[in-house]
Amino acid sequence: MLIGYARTSTLEQEAGLAAQIAELEALGVERIYKEQVSATSKRPELQSALDYLRDGDTLVVTKLDRLARSVKHLGEIVEVIESQEAHLRILNLGIDTSDPTGKLVLNLLGSVAQFEREMMLERQREGIAKAQAEGKYKGRPAMIDKEQIIQRHSTGESPTAIARDMGISRTAIYRALGRVKDKRTDT
């Protein structure tokens, strides 16, 4: 049985979701799970699709980024699919793990993606080290003058007025004053 999964990140992406569903239906997918949530959010429909898989079934997605948010996440999903004796098909990449070639290609793509991520992080670390050595990287600058906030508040000025004037949040004002306040109060 072909089981489809379609996802968009936001509710505003109706056309994208409809296009995925149409592509899955044209392929003959019998059951489609769909949701409109960020890849980093809980995805109950994806979990339902994975739970529904049985021996010989194939989970079909139109694009890899609709399914997994990272190489690690993809690996976890593939493990679940394989534990169900099912397969994965990614339409835009032409990958189908029901044969050895599809499994190989998926593993190669995962390895390449992981390698690229590690190289990007290494370049980032090198860039930060170089900027630090040149004195150009000093971290985030301080945004508030704690003394000024305390002084202004002691004269009776409200946290809201101080925050508005200084262009910072009321939470920052309360932190500077050394106390946590309910955001709805203004004393």
Q: In a few lines, what is going on in this structure?
A:
Helices cover 50% and strands 12% of the residues. With 187 residues, it is of the alpha/beta class.
Task: Describe this protein's structure.
This protein has 187 residues and is an alpha/beta fold. The protein has two domains: 2-99 and 107-112, Resolvase, N-terminal catalytic domain (Rossmann fold), CATH 3.40.50; 146-176, no CATH class. 50% of the residues lie in helices and 12% in strands. The protein is built from seven helices and five strands; from the N terminus they run E-H-E-H-E-H-E-E-H-H-H-H. Strands 2-1-3-4-5 form a five-stranded mixed beta sheet, sandwiched between helices. Strand 1 (2-8), helix 1 and strand 2 (31-36) form a beta-alpha-beta unit. Helix 6 packs across helix 7. The radius of gyration is 25 Å and the shape is elongated. It starts with a strand and ends in an 11-residue tail after the last helix. The model has no long low-confidence stretch (mean pLDDT 86).
